[in-house]
Amino acid sequence: MTEKLSIAVTFRPDQGYFGTAPELRQPVIALSLGGLRRKVEARISPDDVIIVLNLDRAARLERDRRRLTGRPRPDFAGTSA
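The structure assignment produced for this chain is given below.
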C-alpha cells in the first residue's frame, strides 16, 4: 500500500523553499521546488510514499513569480503554431 507524505512548504528569501513534516527529522531546504522534492525523495524511499507539497502563500507567490518572470522551459521552442 502506498502512503502519502505531506510536506508543508514555505519560501524564505534568504534560504529558498523550506519544507517540514513530522516524518522528516529536520527541515529540507532547496532553491527550487524540484530540488526540494528530490531532497525529500533522497531521505525516504520514494517507492513507498507519494510526496505531496503543500505550499503556503509565500511559496505559491514565489512559484508564480518564477513562472511569470523566469526563463522559458528547456523544451520551449519560442515559436507559435
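Interim note for the steering committee: The chain has a mean pLDDT of 86. The CA atoms of residues 5 and 56 lie 16 Å apart.
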